[in-house]
Amino acid sequence: MTTTDLLPAPPPHAAARRALLAGSAGNLVEWYEFGVYGCFATVIAANFFTAQGGSATDAAAEGPGGGAEALVATYASFALAFFFRPVGALLFGRIGDRFGRRTVLVLVIGLMTLATTLIGLLPTRADIGAAAPWLLTFLRVVQGLSAGGEFGGAVSVMVECAPPGRRGLYGAWQSFTVALGLLAGAATAAALATVLPAAALYAWGWRIPFLLALPLGLVALWLRTALEEPPGVPPPTPGTAGSAGSAGSAKSAGTANEATAPAGTATVREQVRAVGLGIGRIMGWSAAGYTFLVVLPSHLQSALGASFRDALLATTLVNIGFAASILPAGLLSDRVGRRPVMLGGALGVAVSAVPLLHVLQSPGASPQARAAAVLVAGALVGLLAGPGPAMLAEMFPRRVRCTGLGLSYALANAVFSGCAGLFVTALTARTGSTAVPALYAATACALSAPALLTLRTDDHREPLR
Prior knowledge:
0% strand; single chain
């Protein structure tokens, strides 16, 4: 028997496509809601984090300082949810590694859909007083837990079911559905801002996008209940994960193929090191992604004086650029490797973030130039997000893949994404500099570049461990 005989056979293309659809559906729901929350940050601040609560007039009555404080409080709630994502990644990742990918994917989409729908039904501060922001924060924590388990399970399914030579493309669908979710959230918010008066938008219109998550989540749940486990060694039963009985399904770290290995080969120290390296490789992706795709609308309004409608239009364009580059970047990484594509994206953001923001805030810039600037910014993030999921999956053996890649992603997002809105808003208010978002994204990408240089040029060609 050769080493190749021990590898799981690739799934039939129809089964691979079904796994791809089921794995990516939950991401769209999750990031649709996160996009909506970012687009409506100023509205949520008025309804939940101001003393009066509930209307555009009341928000304006707070004054510049009060509005900034409410926005900071809104992003603090946003950041808190992100800091619960590593907990969710650890909890649901262990479930996915021990009981199977389908189990965890069904659990997280159900929890996520419930929490998102309840946000759309929450009474505001004007209705119930100080309890309103606490209830909102609690639901954000629930979402953080479920989102923490979503990435590890979904990416594991997509990459493990990918045909040979297509892991980058299949993994890129996770990021692509993120872009679709953010784009759908921004487009929905823009449509509501266009058809509803400001008073109606602040009073009840903001609830509509959250309530729309319910039918989307039910469709994703239906798809995932019919999902088959990826081919290969069945998931270990409770109590045997990591034992000698399950160790035969993974080869030791640093080898090319999956084969029998001692149970202690992948030590805790090795996995902790891999998680830390994974964080370093995607910190630029996390920081730039959230700065450009989520934080941008409120920054354009609060710091640059843009209207709500213009800010949403810019966000829609940056998400279009992001979405357009993700799948080509994943496919390109299958041909030339993960390192050159991701390193190009990181260095591109580091060099161009400040000039692109300068174009946005320049009074003399034409609408076409501003549109091009946000499209380029989104496309550069797509170069990181396309190969990123497959790159993380290739770092961990099967028996700890859900937990390892999910924890890397959740920790990077907790620090560099969850804090992006809070950091950018607070530092901009303190320094008066409108370049803070660009400097934040550029610095994170520059610091990520050395970690990306540690990628091997042939990782994309090696079988999964």
